[in-house]
Amino acid sequence: MTDDVKPEPATTRSASRVLVVEDEPAIRDVVATALRYQGHVVNEIGDGTQALAMATDSSFDLIVLDVMLPGLDGFEVCRQLRDRGRFCPVLFLTARDQTEHRIQGFVAGGDDYLTKPFSVDELTLRVAAILRRIGRDGSPEVLTVDDLVLEVAAKQVRRAGHDIELSPTEFRLLHYLMINAGIVLSKTQILVNVWDYDYDGSDNVVELYIGYLRRKIDKDRTTLIHTRRGHGYVLRQPDR
Ligand code: CA
User: How far apart are CA 8 and CA 6, in angstroms?
Assistant: First the structure.
């Protein structure tokens, strides 16, 4: 080995997906820009109803959620998300005189809140703390369901200790199924999260790729990938 081997750049870590919900364009822009600068993949929206739809259909690592919003307010967006089984952490943005006690009651688990006006440093520190708590701080991620193991950074998959070769699309699909293990995912959800937003082909492609994955993951073994007819697919621990 020569010493011209460069250390891995920080950008090779897996980026976190953050949804920024804020109706005031100037604040939204500052927040989104700061988070992109930190290396996160950021989606922005200025309306509560649209935010709820987006956060239901797509999986985010964190939602930065303004409380006062057109459409649905931030609390309502969060409540309905939890009702839909989406437990992604939320960082609320709230005005100083705004219902401090209400927000205390709302902030649970990995959630947090920031009072306006806040500094960009304060924001990025809070975001980093939340992502660290949920294990999305860039450390290598290893997902395990039963005897199936997926290493995100190494792009490696093993079942019962045997390496499984997957194409990039198969790998993304398996990753998405594993981070949502136990949750039934519709074809549309899978299509939006695994293929590009602007993919305009048929959703038969999901069925096709689930078939490929099954042949590689489940063949001659206990079934992990299940079909819920009329609902979608779920990867889960086998019943014992
Ligand atoms: Ca607002």
Answer: 6
